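Following up on my earlier thread - several people asked me to post the actual chain instead of describing it. Fair enough. Here it is, all 119 residues.
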Amino acid sequence: LFSFLVFLRYQIYYGYPLQTYLEYPIIIAQDVILLLFILRFSGNMKRALFYAVTFWGGWYMLTLRKWIIDLAMNLCTLISAASKLAQLRCLWQTKDSGQVSALTWSMSAYTCASKLWAT
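Reply from S.P.:
Thanks for posting it. Predicted structure:
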C-alpha cells in the first residue's frame, strides 16, 4: 500500500498525465477496502482510525519537500522487495503454501515481467 501511495503522489506532484497513474487510485481503494474487512473481522476496527490518520499524514508529508518525495520513490523498490522476501521467508518457515494461489502468483509474475519489458 505504501508503494502505491508514493507512486500516486509522485505522479500527481510532478504533473504526469492522468492516464499514466489512473490505476493507482483503484488499487489503493481495493487495498483500503481489504484492510477494512481484515480489521472488521479480526475485531480491530478501532485501529482503522489510526491507519486513516497515518494515511492522510503521510500523504501530506510526502510533498513537504521535494527530496522527501524523491527519497520515498527511490525506497519503494527496496520496500516492495523486502515485503516479498518476508512473505517468502514465512512460506519457507511454515512449509505450507496452501494459502497461496498459483493463479495469483502467476498473474503477479506476469505483471512484473510486463512492467520490466515496458520500461
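Helices lie at 2-13, 23-41, 47-61, 66-94, 102-118. That should answer part of your original question.
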